Amino acid sequence: MEFNVKISKVEKQRNTSAIVVAIFESQKLSSTAEELDKISHGYLTSLLSDGLIEGKIGQSLLLYHIPNIPSKRILLIGCGKKRETDIEKYRKIIHETIRKLNDIGSIEAVLFLLEPDMSEDKIYWSIRQAIEAIHEVLYDFDQFKIHKTKTTCALRKITFNISSEREQAIGTQAIQHGLAIAKGIKIAKDLGNMPPNICNASYLTSLTNHLAKTYKKYINTYTVDEQEMNVLGMNAYIAVGSGSKNQSIMSVIEYKGHPDTDTNPIVLIGKGVTFDSGGISLKPEKNMHHMKYDMCGAASVYAVMNILADLQIPLNVIGILASCENMPGSSAYRPGDILTTMSGQTVEVLNTDAEGRLILCEALTYVKRFNPEIVIDIATLTGACVIALGDHMSGLLSNDDLLANELLIASEQTNDHVWRLPITKEYQKQIDSNFADIANIGEGQAGAITAACFLARFTKKYHWAHLDVAGTAWDSKKNTGATGRPVSLLSQFLLNRSNLKE
Ligand code: BES
Ligand code: MN
Ligand code: ZN
Question: Which metal ions or organic cofactors does this protein require, according to UniProt (predicted)?
């Protein structure tokens, strides 16, 4: 799909393109609708007073051959109450627009949804959100189907109207960012949706190698395999993967975009358990197939690395895909095992299904060698987080208020919401062990917090945040698959950091 911005007039559009015009509730016309109304001698107001469209979100009315307008088709789209559209409503409007344009087989469309009195910031976000929303509605994962169910989309080109030269630069940047982020979200969704017999740790490594080839100038990758983990003393990581015949691999992606390549990097660590059966503490059968998504944290990190390179963001970022498979078997680790981690702290395994923290704690120790500016881990870590926050918000836990606030701001900007949970010391007691330094599960309630408390014992040396995306990384209700969250949030956080935008 091609996107562009243009200073356009409704009456000057080519007759081949469909025009999309906003109508607000209580019969309010957008500025373009008003123009249209004037040119057509009150055609629109007559439709409105006949009650043919009220302007409610989701409503639309397709018009053909409006008097004095060269374009054959005009799609009126309900946008709700003027000045009350939030990101969610706006995305709905865009989804409806695309569905309708698709229904009529339109190849080219000009969207007159931006008002001349909008701030530059509003223009940027409207265009960027539109691009992300368009990709979302057109997404399908059908590579394993012989008969593709979704009809192909005829739409090839979308133009956003703007009203001044100054908006041209903002619009172009919004398109560039929107496209890169939308592509990244698709990458994360595709990876998450991949079946676990194909998407294992070696598969993820082959992707990172490919990424390094594509962006030779900025990206360097390498892996830490089981042998090297052994040398480094990452015994908890090795233990988790020991029941699987698939190798455990930690893939490291180094992106250097900062003018000073020695600047301390931001480190992103993604949980990449390509299938989590629970191990010896086997999970119940219901929805066990959802545990192919237990690598969505790693998928989001991989996606963000793509976006950084695509946009050449001036930051140094290291992405780590901490991958392995948690399986039962004669070589699997057991409840009762005591593991010595790379940090020297010992962990008593009380449940082999609390495996995410065991691989993450090793990755969190490993990354100290980079002298990170900050470290963020992204993990489908606990069912308890799903109980606490449902599928609306990811859990945010951090040892640094400034970092937590930056993430909260980026989450507000992108509608990729997070909610901060505490990690105060009273919770720490819940993971004390009788036989080792730490137990891998907490006694009592607050499982999302005790899991983060576990990680916090390995992150004392740097600013750190943990995103528990167990409830948000995939959609189990409608069964539509991976959501691509929190790619939007993370890339915005990085864009903000790079000062490219705000
Ligand atoms: N990958 C799961 C977390 C999960 C469960 C995400 C359900 C989404 C839906 C994680 O490895 C896990 O199994 N966690 C256990 C921890 C428990 C044993 C302390 C959980 O949440 O049940
Ligand atoms: Mn588990
Ligand atoms: Zn897991």
Answer: Mn(2+)
Atom number, ligand 1, closest to the C-alpha of residue 471? 8
Per-residue pLDDT tens over the stretch 287-325: 999 999 999 999 999 999 999 999 999 999 999 999 999
Nearest CA to ligand 1 atom 9: 383
CA–CA distance, 346 with 348 (Å, rounded to integer): 7
pLDDT over 60 at 220, yes or no: yes
SS3 content of the chain, % helix, strand, coil (to 5): 40, 20, 40
For each of the domains in the chain, give its residue range(s) and CATH number, in order of start. 2-162 (3.40.220.10), 186-497 (3.40.630.10)
Evaluate whether 201 touches 249 at the Cβ level (below 8 Å). Answer: yes
What is the amino acid identity at position 22?
A: A
What's the rounded mean pLDDT across residues 264-277? Answer: 99
* Ligand 1 pocket member 355 (CB < 6 A): yes
Whether 73 and 63 have beta carbons less than 8 Å apart is answered as yes
Distance 277 CA to ligand 2 centre (A): 7
Report the candidate in 301, 271, 485 with the shortest Cα–Cα distance to residue 382. 271
User: Strand (E) positions, 170-315?
Assistant: 219-225, 249-256, 266-276
Cα 404 to averaged position of ligand 3 atoms, centre (Å): 24
Nearest CA to ligand 1 atom 17: 354
Distances (CA, A) of 293 to 32, 244, 277, 473: 45, 17, 11, 8
103 marked as part of a ligand binding site: no
pTM of the complete model beyond 0.90: yes
284 preceded by cis ω (within 30°)?
A: no
Mean pLDDT of 444-454: 98
Q: For residue 197, report the distance from its CA to the centre of ligand 1, in Å.
A: 20
**What is the radius of gyration, based on Cα positions, of the chain?**
25
Q: What is the largest CA-CA distance in the chain?
A: 84
- Is position 271 annotated in a ligand binding site? yes
Q: Return the active site residues.
A: 283, 357
